[in-house]
Each structure stands twice: as structure tokens, then as C-alpha cells.
Amino acid sequence: MPRAAVANFVLPFEAPFVELQERVRELRAAAERDPSLLGQLATLEVRAGELARDVFSQLSPIEKVQLARHPMRPYTSDYLSRLCTDLVELAGDRRYGEDASIVAGLARFRGRSVAVVGQQKGRNTKENVRRNFGMPNPEGYRKADRVYQLADRFRLPIVTFIDTPGAYPGIGGEERGQGEAIGACLYTLACVEVPVVAIVIGEGGSGGALALGVANRVMMLEYAWYSVISPEGCAAILWKDGARAADAAAQLKLTASDLSRLGVVERVIDEPAGGAHQDHERAASLVGDALEAALEELSLLSPAALRDDRYQRFRRLGDAAIAG
């Protein structure tokens, strides 16, 4: 998909809001030249806010999945460029090669040194081929594991950005040990004695997402999804019909509100009106504030307490569902 086409991509249910937002932008630009238009601008902004609340408060689970996959949604690199300074990206797994679908390295976040790991998609066909559509191969997960171990050695908090439909399921990945590589990530994250914060920024599919998700605090953006399987994959298995993805999405309880209620995530991060793709700067600011609060809270715990906190967190999973 050409970049221009991506920029103009609009989901059917968001079309009225996007059209109104475009009018707001045009009027805002005109008001900079003619202050007499400020009153009209304020009225239009109120209408846009009301429309956003009406439309986006009633989204179905499958519509939230569609928003999570929006091609203009901010990806890991978009957040890193806005939240971090002095980013030193590390490449390769020291075994097989480099996997561009995982971005990993060391950086500074609001005065704090951190290790960052995130899945990365592309904006167009060429980028998506290079990033393997955000589906990491084993070498990508082994690169992530290498950074986890570095972070533990140098006592750096680990911050992960989850955004993948799942680990690459191809034969090459299986031959090189996809399951073992993901398992190694799970083991390392379970054992590290530093704070780990995971943020689901888009798609959170299966073990490919969980390899970045064994954390002390797991947070999700409002319109992200996180599940053991995609709605399409679930529908294909249960009903032999991928077209029933909407039914599967409703049953999987994969939305941020569902997972917060079930205790799978600790915090749901609000998105800008209309979704994170409408305002990357605002989305990054909201993510940054939530991340800073989580790191401040976890900084009070000792290394042994951090590991125990992570263990107890995962032991509690399912309690809310049983109680409900």
C-alpha cells in the first residue's frame, strides 16, 4: 500500500469523525490568520469531541481490533523517537542474524536509563517486507533475550512495546527454534531482578506477544487487543470460517476494558479522540506519563522483591474471572 494511500486510510465507522476533524484542522489554520474565527473553531471542536464520544464509546470488539491494526497507528519507533533520547539500537542475536521486526537497545527516558524492546511493523510494502509485518523470527526473540540479560546485568529497567499479530509461523522460523526462542524470553523475563513494564500499543497476538509481556506491570492502550489468538484464527479453528471473526472477538475478551476487568492488565491508557493514529504526539505523551508512573512505583522495590512481585502477578491471573 503506497504511503499516500495509508495516510488516507479511513475505517467506515470512523469516517464521520475523521471528516469533522479535517474541518477542525482547516478552521484552526484559518483562525491563525483571522482571529475572528476562534469562536467558530471552539464550537466545532466541541462538536468533534461529542462525536468522538458517541462513536468510539460504542465500538464492538472487532472494531477495536481494526483500530489496533490501523496503518497510521503509531508503532514502536514512533514512541521511541518521542519518549527516548540517546537511543542506541542493538542488532543481531549473535547466533544467526538480524531481525528488523524487533527493535531493541538502550536509551534514556525522562532522565532514566532503560532497556527498550518492541515489535515493529512497516508503513508500506517495502518496509513491511523488511519488518516481516511485525512477526518476529527466532533471531528477533533471541535479540530481545540478549537485551533482557544486558538490562539485568547493568540494573536497567526493561520497557517493552507489544505490537504483533504473532510470531512468524513459517517453516524457517520453526527450523531455527521459534518455540525455544520465545521460551527463553519468558524464562529470562521471569528471572530478571529489574523492573519490567510492558505496553500493548496495538496488536498482542499469542506467544509472540507474551515473549515481551512477562512484566511487573502490563498496560494497554485503549484500542489495543491482547489474546492467545487472533479473531480470524479463532474463527477458523472453532467454526471453520474466518468470516466469523467478529463473533470470535466478542468471545475472546481481548479488549483493554475486558482484560482490565479480568486482571490481565494493570492499566488502560486513554487514547486521543478518534484513536492514537489521530495524534501521535498526544498518544506518546499519555504513554510516557503512564510509563513514568509505573517505573516510579517499581523503583521502590528491591531486586528480589521485583522478581517476587512478577511471580505473584502471574499467579493471580484468573482470580478475577473465577470470582466473577
Q: How would you sum up this structure, described in words?
A:
The protein has two domains: 12-58; 64-323, Alpha-Beta Complex (2-enoyl-CoA Hydratase, Chain A, domain 1), CATH 3.90.226.10. The protein starts with a helix and ends with a helix. Helix 10 links the parallel strand 5 (196-205) and strand 6. Strands 1, 2, 3, 4, 5, 6, 7 and 8 form an eight-stranded mixed sheet that branches. It has helices at residues 3-7, 15-33, 38-56, 61-68, 76-83, 125-131, 138-153, 171-175, 178-191, 206-210, 231-238, 245-252, 256-261, 280-298, 303-316, 319-323; strands spanning 84-89, 102-109, 112-119, 158-164, 196-205, 217-221, 225-227, 267-269. The model has no long low-confidence stretch (mean pLDDT 92). The protein is built from 16 helices and eight strands. It is 51% helix and 15% strand. With 324 residues, the protein is an alpha/beta fold. Helix 2 runs antiparallel to helix 3 (38-56), helix 4 packs across helix 12 and helix 7 packs parallel to helix 9. The longest helix is centred in the first third of the chain and has 19 residues, at 15-33.
